[in-house]
Specification:
By secondary structure, the chain is mainly α. It has one domain. 68% of the residues lie in helices and 3% in strands. The chain contains 19 helices and six strands. Strands 1-2 form a two-stranded parallel sheet. The chain has a two-stranded antiparallel ribbon with strand order 3-4. β5 and β6 form a beta hairpin. α12 packs across α17. The longest helix is centred in the N-terminal third of the chain and has 26 residues. The chain is globular.
Length: 431
């Protein structure tokens, strides 16, 4: 067991000169605050995803706290990652259950849960295969040009949805830009702990400006704080049980391939940022993700995936300590058990969340470009050029393919296009 986890060491030095490594830890207060920031980074997405699918947001938050801790234990604390509700399930859940996206509670939730469990098991089996056979076939299947493009499209694919939420509303659009500016000013003009907390501090600044502008000056929609006082401090979310329907399982299970691509892209991005070779941990990471998805859906929550938003947080803070993610998980557990927290979060204006999303999704996109740079991808080679060009446009344009009742989705289509193009063009290398 001593070899399962790394030998933890206290961080020594200046963050501006040297990042905090995965096996290092900061003082308790700094670690706690950074953990809170990671929890907040995932919150918007991990609440939105279950809402769109008709799942319980509170339960989703609770499981997004438990699952990163499970991931930490299975990977031996060697991979910095936060797990949250996956957007990859939205399309297939809608098809499998007949649920209209965003229309409220899903009456066929149990059927969706059975399909997600099947997906989680399939995902874990891929992980065990990688652990037994190595990662060479994964590396061959998804070289840096592919993984860089996949990471980029995660950010680019989400961008239009984010921008549309405030489109046509001048005050909301200005507030989104103020949020971006607040975070940017913290990132550029501050140092130390304050700089590391740019997302959280920037969010608080923008929230305050919005509250003054709306509730005091009369611009925009006023914030309603009544529900915060009315909500209870503690409450256990309602659990649900799965139903295993073969048709639903066949529709949802293939999402495991998309999750593999997301996790691979995540680990490649983190490897590029940290300078550590995390490839040997891929098998464990896949198993951990798969088991987390299975556990989450067995109690009524959505499937899990590594969160790109947290790549953005790490890129800015330069803190890669895996202990921070355990703290974030514990914090999320408490949040999931508190209806009052849900009430507080519900008061955050869409404009402020949009501004934060612009920053985070932009950082995700640049993390993909960094994979290309760090691995010296040669774009004078037409093979790499076409793979990257086609993948980015398919992902950014949300090009969706239908296979019968199975909707691959924009990210899925772009991911598989990148993989297949790489395999096809690699035939030339053999001639």
């Amino acid at each position: 067991m001593s070899n399962w986890f790394p030998k933890w060491q206290p961080y020594q030095g200046e963050n501006e000169n040297r990042p905090v490594a995965t096996n290092e830890y900061l003082p308790p207060l700094q670690s706690a605050v950074l953990g809170v920031q990671h929890a907040f980074a995932m919150f918007g997405a991990t609440v939105l995803a279950p809402l769109l699918m008709g799942f319980s947001p509170n339960l989703a938050i609770l499981m997004s706290g438990i699952c990163p801790i499970l991931f930490f234990l299975i990977t031996g604390g060697r991979v910095p990652s936060y797990l949250g509700s996956s957007f990859a399930f939205i399309g297939v859940v809608a098809v499998a259950t007949g649920h209209i996206t965003g229309s409220g509670a899903n009456p066929n939730l149990a059927v969706a849960l059975g399909g997600i469990i099947a997906c989680g098991i399939f995902y874990a089996l891929i992980g065990f295969a990688v652990m037994l056979t190595g990662t060479r076939w994964i590396e061959k299947l998804m070289p840096p040009v592919v993984t860089g493009a996949v990471v980029m499209i995660i950010g680019l694919n989400l961008a239009p949805v984010t921008i549309k939420s405030v489109a046509g509303q001048p005050f909301e659009m200005w507030m989104a830009l103020i949020t971006v500016l607040s975070m940017g000013m913290i990132a550029v003009f501050t140092k130390g702990l304050l700089q590391r907390l740019l997302l959280l501090v920037g969010l608080l600044i923008a929230y305050t400006i919005y509250a003054i502008s709306s509730n005091v000056l009369g611009y925009g929609k006023q914030l309603d704080f009544y529900h915060i006082a009315a909500a209870s401090w503690f409450g256990i979310p309602q659990f649900s049980h799965p139903i295993f329907d073969l048709k639903a399982m066949l529709i949802i299970a293939p999402v495991a391939l998309i999750l593999v691509a997301e996790n691979l892209g995540h680990i490649k991005a983190v490897s590029a940022m940290t300078g550590e070779n995390l490839t040997p941990q891929l098998g464990k990471a896949f198993v951990a993700d798969g088991l987390a998805t299975t556990l989450s859906s067995s109690v009524g929550a959505p499937g899990m995936t590594t969160y790109g938003e947290n790549i953005g947080v790490m890129a800015v803070t330069r803190v890669y300590s895996t202990i921070v993610f355990v703290i974030a998980g514990v914090f999320a557990i408490f949040l999931g058990l508190s209806p009052k927290f849900g009430a507080v979060i519900s008061t955050i204006p869409t404009a402020v969340l949009t501004g934060a999303s612009i920053v985070v999704f932009g950082l995700i996109t640049i993390a993909g470009a960094k994979i290309w740079i760090e691995n010296k991808v040669d774009f004078s080679n037409n093979k790499n050029l076409i793979i990257a060009a086609v993948t980015i446009i398919l992902g950014a344009g949300n090009f969706e393919l239908l296979f019968g009742s199975f909707n691959l989705g924009g990210i899925g289509t772009a991911t598989f296009a990148a993989i297949l193009l790489n395999l096809l063009f690699s035939l030339k290398d053999k001639t």
